[in-house]
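Input record (one chain):
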Amino acid sequence: IVTQTHYLDLMKIYKRFHNDFDEVFFVVSSRGDSEELRINPKLCEYNNVLCLEYEDLIYANRSQLETMVQKLTAIFQDRFGYFFGENSSLLGSESQMNAIQR
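The corresponding structure, as predicted from the sequence alone:
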């Protein structure tokens, strides 16, 4: 399951879904300098949480989108490889191209 939300009570979301899945992962982004838009750094210490800067998710054209998807895939694999395995096809080039097409 993949979802997008602005609700940041990750523990509550985790408790709601963790019994239905092998693992629940969170990719969250911080934006700007305002404390309301920044992720609590303690959340980023959890093994199933990946914290990014909002600016890392911005793209203006297809070429930048492809670069962003490749970069995020590498970061995702580095952070969550313990779960998916180092050679998982889940994060392979075909999956990346499918993400770009969506």
